[in-house]
TrEMBL record:
GO terms for molecular function: 4 iron, 4 sulfur cluster binding; glutamate synthase (NADH) activity; glutamate synthase (NADPH) activity; metal ion binding. NCBIfam families: gltD_gamma_fam (TIGR01318). It comes from the Bacteria. This is Glutamate synthase (NADPH/NADH) small chain. It comes from Rhizomicrobium palustre.
Amino acid sequence: MVEKMLKFVSLGRAMPGKRPPEDRARDFHEIYAEFAAEKAAEQASRCSQCGVPFCQQHCPLSNNIPDWLKLTAEGRLQEAHELSQATNNFPEICGRICPQDRLCEGNCVIEQSGHGTVTIGAIEKYINDTAWEQGWVKPLAPTRTRAGSIGIIGAGPAGLACAEELRKKGYSVTVYDRHDRAGGLLTYGIPGFKLEKDVVMRRVKRLEDGGIAFKLNFEVGRDATLADIRASHDAVFVATGVYKPREIDAPGVGLRAIVPALEFLTASNKTGFGDTITDGEKLNAAGKNVAVIGGGDTAMDCVRTALRQGAKSVTCLYRRDRENMPGSLREVTNAEEEGVDFQWLTLPKGFLGDAAVEGVRISRMRLGLPDATGRKSPEEIKGADYTLQADLVIKALGFDPEPLPELFKEPTLGVSKWGTLRVKPSTMMTNIEGVFAGGDIVRGASLVVWAVRDGRDAATAIHTYLENKAAQPQAAE
């Protein structure tokens, strides 16, 4: 039936219910309940169906949001799923972890007019979780077989999206990854309370069942060089992400129990899988006073993970104020509700202790003049230092690229001054013939949704490259 839309004038915005903070902070289950069918349809009907859909324009995948909202409002969920799946390889994942407040929802027309945004992310999650429950997500089944083999280095969102798109076209695809499970940051970087791991594993299984080969615990440079991978395939896509943690230059930074964020989060996620963790006690926050340095989404993942591990106290140290945090304010709010102590305008200047860290020496800051990005620069307030007790410090300062030319034993591989791989924008090819790259290793640390976009674009570029190569006349021997 045709459902009347534009109900935002009489119907307020509503999110699925959140579990109480005292309950959710004790486990790693997702914190949001699922929409009921009636509530999802009701909230979808708030969409204004505007002529210029800014939600779609500000989605890196250009998801056809207004149309699948209308289909949801009309109860046509299978069609809504098919439309959502057409532009996104992982819609139920993006519905959970995308910063909608900065992308689609943050640019919703009715939000700008003061009526409160449509709950796009929660509806996207509902549509596609329902699709899995109802069996609408079909096995990956190429309709033809093409000559051509592609090797993909990295089983994160960019690599998996590229693998799926190329497999659908009929190519033979092999994915190489250093970890023992595919998924990259989806598996080992993002905590279960934001993304439960069975959601990721069922996507990986669909790819495996569709004929994509996975070579796990495989490290390019250790088990094979980039040249070896190239010799085995007609094209290669590099999607390793960026994993080198940024450091803080301060006395005592080498003390035991000062750890990088990703090492801490990976250990926690591996524990959730039932794995045994080497040096697990160091990476467990139970009973400890924990300090997390940083203000991005990774820092929020760390503080909320530490709470769930049973930390005695959890403090987030950030050099600017709440309004200038780079992370999602939704995640900050969740952390505050769960009991994290945020100490704004603070900068660690040293770490105290003998063998292991016992405290953080902190300088108080104030915001001065804007820098080149327009954000006010933090300035130290002289004579206002203090010490925070801490026996576990987690550095969540961001990530840089690893030195891939060195690691891959391919010194000619071109990189930028930041260490990211250089590609030709129109083709996504590096300076090495047949080697493509995308995701964070080209962009720098970014969002999962951008990685998916790059993976899909790379698949198109690789297909075009192989088609053109096949069309070229072969030189006579």
